[in-house]
Amino acid sequence: MNVSPAARDLPSSIDATEELLRGARYVADRSLATVLYLSLKMGRPLFLEGEAGVGKTEIAKVLAEALGRRLIRLQCYEGLDVGQAVYEWNYAAQMVEIRLAEAEGVTDRDQLAGDIFSERFLVKRPLLEALEPTLTLAPVLLIDELDRADEAFEAYLLELLADFQITIPELGTVRAASPPLVVITSNRTREIHDALRRRCLYHWVDYPSAARELEIVRLKVPGAGDRLGREVVAFVQALRGEELYKAPGVSETLDWASALSELNVVALDPETVSDTLGVLLKYQDDIARLGTSDMRALVDEAKAKAGAIE
Q1: Looking at domain 14-78+133-204, which CATH architecture does it have?
Q2: pTM of the prediction?
């Protein structure tokens, strides 16, 4: 993602932060707008926890879009290490350089080491890219699903989050001229250590209220009629109260509303819900748990409550 020519200054208030997010089609509650504003104002990383699909990753994407900043994303996974996340040396190119030096009769080992461990042989990964001292505008750095990475990698992040710098033994310390705007997300599949939490501002991203979820559906799926949008939201809200392995997130609500709209559905009925439930629920046990009677009861409840959503 390239930096937009219409780069904007950081918001000057909580209200301005809400407007910034809304302008990029993200509906945030006041508490999220507040902690995001403070994170930007104080230059502190923002640590977001919550269930999968509630919009944590989207916050970083929207922030980059709204501010006209480059988005640098590090997707975490088990086994992620420094070479994949921070930097590594281009060993093949270094070997070629060594062979050429030997062919030319270069015998100064210190000079050769200085040549091959220079920046032109350095392969920069997302975390090092985010600290580029040549960047004129600080990027948004998204460290996504940190809970999937190992604890050793989490510990490595402490220097970056505290001082916005990374130490490369062969080159020295790389510091950001303008610290990146850091957003860290976690689905809480494991606990993140206190040492990292202390370096961040924290916010739990919860499922939205019915009114806010309806606003999101209207904004993101304008093709869905008002009646369908209300019934979809009321159904999903009721479904989250069931004992499911994985309750549907906002992303699933939007997918389901889009799918029903594509099918030209104007109102929910048990048959249509049954046929499209795989868009909303992603585990067979959850689908099987909703028997025909439960399905009809949820549809009836959604229709009864839909009109009251404001």
Answers
A1: 3-Layer(aba) Sandwich (3.40)
A2: 0.88
